[in-house]
């Protein structure tokens, strides 16, 4: 499909020693850099999600976070697969955005009453900001992989993209069916 693209053949024979840096396009380099960014973000989420789960009030939200934690662990291994396909070492590069989004979530937990529905509303709000960041990232990276002719990588990234979208929808559902209404009935305790 992309016969003019010299980087295509190289990426198909990932891991081959004759592939050197000079054959890689700037776009390929950007793609790998962004993979490292989301790899850091996912690994950071694996550490942060258990704390969010513990802070949540409703079993429904706790279960949703637990499920997404398990999915996130798989997402980390998917990224390692993509690095492998490219013949790159799986390497994490600090994602300032995810660090900030997780800090926001922690701030919301600190500012809300333990055991309240309002706390859950806050956690859902923070979690959806995280999911949207991930949806934007995986959407862009899936597209970029296709542009680079990396169709296997695109497929793997697309799987995670679909998972992030479902996680986001589930959070909306939990907010709309229970948590938001319950929180609206709560009075401020301090
Ligand atoms: Fe993720
Ligand atoms: Fe990032
Ligand atoms: Zn970043
Ligand atoms: Fe996610």
> What's the architecture in CATH terms?
Up-down Bundle
Distance between the termini: 64 Å
Which ligands, by name, code or SMILES, are bound?
A: fe (iii) ion, zinc ion
Total domain units: 1
* SSE topology string: HHHHHH
Oligomer: single chain
Mean pLDDT: 91
SS elements, strand count: 0
What is the count of helical runs? 6
CATH-derived topology = Ferritin
Evaluate the radius of gyration.
19 Å
Shape: elongated
* Low-pLDDT segments, ≥5 res: 6-18
CATH superfamily placement = Ferritin, core subunit, four-helix bundle
Please bin the fraction of helical residues. Answer: over 70%
CATH class: Mainly Alpha
Please tell me about this protein's structure.
By secondary structure, the protein is mainly α. The chain has one domain: Ferritin, core subunit, four-helix bundle (Ferritin). The chain has 6 helices and no strands. Helix 5 runs antiparallel to helix 6 (151-184). It is elongated and about 65 Å long. The termini are far apart. 34% of the residues are buried. Bound molecules: fe (iii) ion (3 copies) and zinc ion. The site of one fe (iii) ion has 6 residues, from helix 2 and helix 3.
């Amino acid at each position: 499909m992309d016969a003019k693209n010299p980087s295509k053949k190289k990426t198909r024979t990932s891991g081959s020693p004759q592939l050197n840096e000079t054959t890689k396009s700037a776009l390929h380099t950007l793609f790998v850099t962004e993979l490292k960014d989301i790899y850091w973000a996912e690994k950071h989420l694996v550490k942060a999600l258990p704390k969010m789960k513990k802070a949540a009030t409703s079993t429904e939200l706790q279960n949703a976070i637990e499920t997404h934690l398990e999915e996130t662990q798989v997402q980390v291994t998917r990224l390692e697969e993509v690095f492998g396909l490219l013949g790159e070492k799986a390497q994490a590069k600090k994602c300032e955005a995810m660090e900030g989004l997780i800090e926001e979530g922690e701030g919301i937990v600190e500012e809300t009453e333990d055991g309240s529905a309002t706390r859950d509303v806050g956690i859902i709000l923070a979690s959806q900001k995280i999911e949207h960041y991930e949806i934007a990232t995986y959407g862009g990276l899936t597209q970029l992989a296709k542009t680079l002719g990396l169709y296997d990588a695109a497929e793997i990234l697309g799987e995670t993209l679909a998972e992030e979208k479902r996680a986001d929808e589930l959070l909306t559902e939990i907010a709309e069916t229970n948590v938001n209404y319950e929180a609206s009935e709560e009075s401020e305790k301090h």
